[in-house]
Amino acid sequence: MATLTKQQIGSVLAKQGILIAFVIFMIAFTIANPKFLTMDNVFSVVRSSAILGVMALGVTFVVISGNLDLSVGSMMSFSTIVVLDLHDKIGPFMAIPAMFAMTLCLGAFIGFLVGYLRLNSLIVTLGMLSAIHGLTLTYSGGQNMDIADKEGTWFSVFGQGTALGIPVPILIFIALAALLGLTLAKTPFGRKVYAVGGNGTAATFSGIPRARTVFFCYLISAACVATAGLIQASRSLGSQNTVGQGLELEVLAAVILGGASLLGGSGTVFKTVIGVLILGFIQNGLLLMGLQFYIQFVVTWVIIILAVWLDIAAKRGKLWSAIA
Amino acid sequence: MNIRYTLAATTALVAFAGAASADTMKIGITQNNVGVDSYQTTYEKAFIAAAEANADVETVVLDAGGDVARQIAQMEDLIQQEVDAIIIWPTNGEAVIPAVRKASQAGIPVIVTNSNIAEQGFDFVKSFSGPDNITQGARSAEIMCDKFKEMGIENEAKVVHITGQPGYTTAIERAQGFNDRLPEVCPNVEQIDQQPGDWNREKSQQVMEAFLVKYDDIDGVYAGDDNMGVGALNAAKAAGRDGIIFVGATNFAVGYEAMAAGDYWGSIYQSPVDDAEAALKTAIDVLNGEEVPFLNYFDTPKITQDNMGEFTKPVF
């Protein structure tokens, strides 16, 4: 059996700092409440995180390409409301593709503005955040959407069903993460995304179509949002107009926590998944500990900053590192 | 003779004009955030309908879109337009006080609707028209306690409590009403946990999932509104935990349906139509110089599976 040299250990630490932080938190929470690591609880946390997680997968592409997407929260509200409304009007078989088509149009529009008109993605998606919210309110007339026949529809399978003993939202999350992870790591398109975000000018000189690459990143993001909306709608079979409100920042936090750089060019799907799980398990762990709610806000962000610090310290190989 | 006649005619005219302006009252309203939820959407429709049904009332209906700055600007617009009374659904109980004071100083009576402003603004307000959320919380506690007694578990039942958005007055008052009343009516019932669900069905479902993992024995769930109550119910159903008594507040259509299906025990019936009509009536009464109580609550009765037939299904 090969023994690891000190250097090898150092390099593993540097690469997987965030994973180590994750494991440490899991152990700490399990000690605090042994029920934390039961199968039921783990399933319920990952199932809840799947919605945020699926959205974060798409945003990972956008962030690696050097852009932002703050519109995902209100876009998710839009998808949820649309699919619930169409469910009763044209049936679930038609409602799902129709909702995907509408959400992809929004993604294509954002991709066009950022990619081809070269507008600042922060402004575009911030604007779309409120424009899409307005669109959702107009569409629904401000009413909550509910499916009339909640017991009789097979539509609930995406959010409430299980296959092989595993909740379907988790399976969707895993499948999408695998698909998008491979796309990013192993395909020419994935390498283009890194190139565009890492050094746009160099990418242009290498003949990489920057606009098209950015456009497709937003399309992927929209597809992920539509999937998240589908899970959300199917999970509760009814929804408020504001269901996704504020999720854009949680999604971004998960992506950055996973180690993607806001400047673009770095990050992986796997690390985003870890970022999502850390956020989900922190929330759940604090609930199980029974901390008073007001403290939870503070503790959540202390833990997140601790995780980022552990990650960066492992990369640098030292804990203390001032701006020189 | 001639002069006297003219004088008389002028006096009559002035009197007539005075009477006419007293008859058609111009009432302005600035709402919180129409369209953000079904309650507020229905409220606006009901308000406009009630105003149209009354020939003596002319209204200026505005909406702040949840934005404090816009609401303050709207208050100033209404003062400029010299409306006879202003109804405000505050976007923020503190921040709107200066604008309310300005209206009051301009001699325009201000009526607060649905959620009250902070106490230091009370001097500038003629009346608050809305639900009594502390009583609502207390009534929910009574509904739950009565059901426990009927089941014979009033001495050992354990309750979890899911509140609305932290910091939101309605959430605080309902939680307070429930927490104060429950030990009075059912002293041996234990509340084992309390966490916010932020008025959000999905969030509430997550909170309930964690409760179900944490506690093997839960007999009752109180949620600050039916939207959250149904979220909690979904979690219990998914986990296969039967026999839990769910009580909410602000009966929503989803809550009403869950009651009809026998899954959800009770709630508080709060109609946005009553809310809107009460606000308009309070404003009219104030303008007619009638004595109006400062806290002018409209009634929000208990609704359970037993008496739900007396109520129509909420439209929101």
TrEMBL record, chain A:
It is found in: Cell membrane. Keywords: Cell inner membrane, Cell membrane, Membrane, Transmembrane, Transmembrane helix, Transport. The chain crosses the membrane at residues 12-31, 51-72, 93-116, 122-142, 163-185, 213-231, 251-282, 294-314. It comes from the Bacteria. The keyword DNA repair does not apply. It is a multi-pass membrane protein. GO terms for cellular component: plasma membrane. GO terms for molecular function: transmembrane transporter activity. The keyword Isomerase does not apply. InterPro entries: ABC_transp_permease. PANTHER family: ABC TRANSPORTER PERMEASE PROTEIN YPHD-RELATED (PTHR32196:SF21), ABC TRANSPORTER PERMEASE PROTEIN YPHD-RELATED-RELATED (PTHR32196). This is ABC transporter permease.
TrEMBL record, chain B:
Keywords: Signal. GO terms for molecular function: carbohydrate binding. The keyword Signal applies. Residues 1-22 form the signal peptide. It is found in: Cell envelope. Residues 32-291 form the Periplasmic binding protein domain. InterPro entries: Peripla_BP_I, SBP_2_dom. Gene3D superfamilies: 3.40.50.2300. Belongs to the bacterial solute-binding protein 2 family. This is Substrate-binding domain-containing protein. It comes from Kangsaoukella pontilimi.
